[in-house]
Amino acid sequence: MQTSPILFGQYRPIDSFLHHLDTRAKLLPVILVLGLGLFTHSFIFYLVVIGLLLASLLLSGISVEQLARNLQPMLLLVGITFLYHLIFSGKGSVVLLAPLGLPIREEAIRAGTFFSLRLLLFVSMAFLVTLTSSPSQMAEAASKLLRPLGKLRVPVNDLSLILFIAMRFIPILFEEFVMIRNAQIVRGVNFEGNIFSRARKTLYLLIPVFVAAVNRADDLALALQARGYDRKVDRSYYSHARIRVTEYVFMSATAAVLVLLFVVTG
Known about the structure:
Blueprint: H1 17-20, H2 23-39, H3 43-59, H4 64-88, E1 95-97, E2 104-105, H5 106-132, H6 135-145, H7 156-186, H8 195-226, H9 245-264
Antiparallel strand pairs: 1-2
Helix pairs in contact: 2-5, 2-9, 3-5, 4-5, 6-7, 7-8
């Protein structure tokens, strides 16, 4: 079976343990990881959690080659983050190297590595959830988790619908981008060259992609109106997901490991 070149935001139906878990059982550990990740300053915490996440992705049916290919764009962002801190952080600390007159300081390397690992952790969490949960499951889980906020007049159903549409249209817009790019190549546009030339030519593709996205949004709004969507009416569900003993055990074990790792690593 041919796999899509993009994984973020696209569900891959595979028979694995994480796929069979209720989405809420995966979202709660994710929230805990994000919370602990913002309060820790330990490199070991990030490395261990990232290693566990990558192992979970491999166990969920994605190969090492696919994982490396789909993480390449994010690794570029991680590299830019590291370079930014390498240049602008760590003033007043010990200078280790000075290539081309540019001082590279000890605290700058530490800050760049730390924030790069944090960014990689957050991206890995997004990959794990979107890979093992369909957009409808994500929307249903968000609706149930945010239901108590409905008493405060928070539009929970609208937020869930926005989440579902965003998750569903990420791969569609990517395919639209690839189709427009291939059409430009057929017409003789050359996207080769240095990085600045390629970035400028790629920027020209964003306008037709944006127009296509607006047209799709207009059609979707008309479809919702034709089907009688009313934000004030409680939604019904085709399938009723329930948290079983397996989910409780998974959440308890995951939370215990994360908290213990957070405490041990300081």
